[in-house]
Write a structure and sequence with these properties.
379 residues; alpha/beta; Carbamate kinase; Archaeosine Trna-guanine Transglycosylase, Chain: A, domain 4; 2 domains; 5-stranded mixed sheet
Length: 379
């Protein structure tokens, strides 16, 4: 299958997509939020949403918006990116940015949610599961999550670095069908796109090394550039998720990036499927840690269902929430998966209906003990 055919196949089967909006797409140093641009982008996101596609927005812009209200010298900001100053700008800009998002989404009759993240949220297994469950629940409730790095508290040790990396990590977390990154230029060129003889590259095969590509410097309102985008692309395409980098300066930029042959399409590894995720689940399983299920749960698992507490009869050994454990029916291992509760909690809720979890524990991480998306069947 050619890369062009691959793009067409992806376009016809999109169910979940991450849209990454760079600072220059929605803000300017002088004016703060570009309301006209942002309103049009929100309208396009809602159009995808109304087609039944689950959309996650990763939005930069908080620092750029903050510059309107905190009058720092622009030259000094470029020469000395003081962390405290950047965090102050973000702390001021983020509420204004999210207020604008809420306003424009509300005008379209859609609810949006703000999620601010740091690298620690992806590294810590419990936070990782909480984050994933929260976003999935928002999507199930037809809410559009708007994610941004928590610049007001993050620093070098926990910073994601830029929202290109955040977009890629979110795309992997949620196993989306496509990541769209909107930037100043319409994808990748063989040299600086400002030069007259620069040639646009419409499709990039998987494992392209990008040697000889000239990178334009980052914009005055953003923290990333094409180099950081290609770093994100390299990570994501190796996990089987394709990427489109396209311009936000075109008419209907999201629609043309998702459904037209616009920008640059970066083909993903066509052989990856979910094998890496399955490999992660299997290779990190805690030996000796398992739960035993009854026949009803066993049959439900075979049909591809999640594991409910009502089907659990026994808990063996100690393990934490987020650990990979075995699921057994009798003496036979039938599945391996990441658990939503620790061993003590499962001991309390085993045999109970999911509706009783909060009554028994006083809280409810999830209505299932192992979700089907975080499980590998052994048969």
């Amino acid at each position: 299958m050619t890369e062009k055919t691959s793009r067409a196949k992806v376009q016809s089967n999109i169910k979940r997509v991450v849209i990454k909006l760079g600072s220059s797409a929605i803000a300017s140093t002088q004016e703060g939020i570009d309301s006209k641009k942002l309103k049009h982008l929100v309208s396009e996101v809602v159009a995808l949403h109304k087609q039944g596609i689950q959309v996650i927005v990763v939005s930069s812009g908080a620092i750029a918006v903050g510059k309107k209200y905190l009058k720092y010298d622009e030259i000094q900001l470029r020469e000395n990116r003081n962390i405290a100053v950047m965090q102050a700008l973000s702390a001021v800009g983020q509420p204004y940015l999210m207020s604008a998002y809420n306003n424009f989404f509300a005008q379209e009759g859609v609810c949006a949610a703000q999620i601010l993240l740091t690298h620690e949220d992806f590294k810590d297994r419990t936070r990782y599961l909480n984050m994933k469950n929260t976003i999935n629940e928002l999507l199930e409730q037809n809410v559009i999550p708007v994610l941004n790095e928590n610049d007001s508290v993050s620093f070098s040790e926990i910073s994601l670095g830029d929202n290109d990396q955040l977009a890629a990590m979110t795309a992997q977390l949620l196993q989306v069908d496509l990541l769209v990154m909107l930037t100043e230029y319409d994808g990748l060129y063989d040299k600086n796109p400002n030069e007259q003889d620069a040639t646009h590259i419409p499709i990039v095969p998987y494992r392209h090394d990008f040697k000889g590509v000239a990178f334009k410097k980052k914009s005055s309102v953003g923290t990333g550039g094409m180099k950081t985008k290609l770093e994100a692309v390299t990570k994501l395409t190796s996990l089987g998720i394709p990427v489109v980098i396209a311009s936000h300066n075109k008419l209907h930029p999201i629609d043309r990036a998702v459904y037209k042959e616009a920008g640059t399409y970066f083909a993903a590894d066509s052989n990856i499927s979910n094998s890496k995720k399955k490999g992660w689940i299997v290779t990190t399983v805690k030996q000796g840690c398992h739960i035993v299920v009854d026949e009803g749960a066993y049959r439900a698992l075979k049909r591809g269902a999640s594991l409910l507490p009502s089907g659990i009869t026994k808990v063996n050994s100690k393990f934490k929430r987020g650990d990979s454990i075995f699921v057994k029916y009798g003496r036979k291992t039938v599945a391996i998966g990441f658990c939503e509760y620790d061993s003590k909690e499962i001991e309390k809720i085993k045999g109970q209906q999911a509706t009783k979890i909060i009554e028994v524990l006083g809280f409810c991480h999830s209505s299932v003990v192992l979700h089907r998306n975080n499980m590998v069947l052994k048969e």
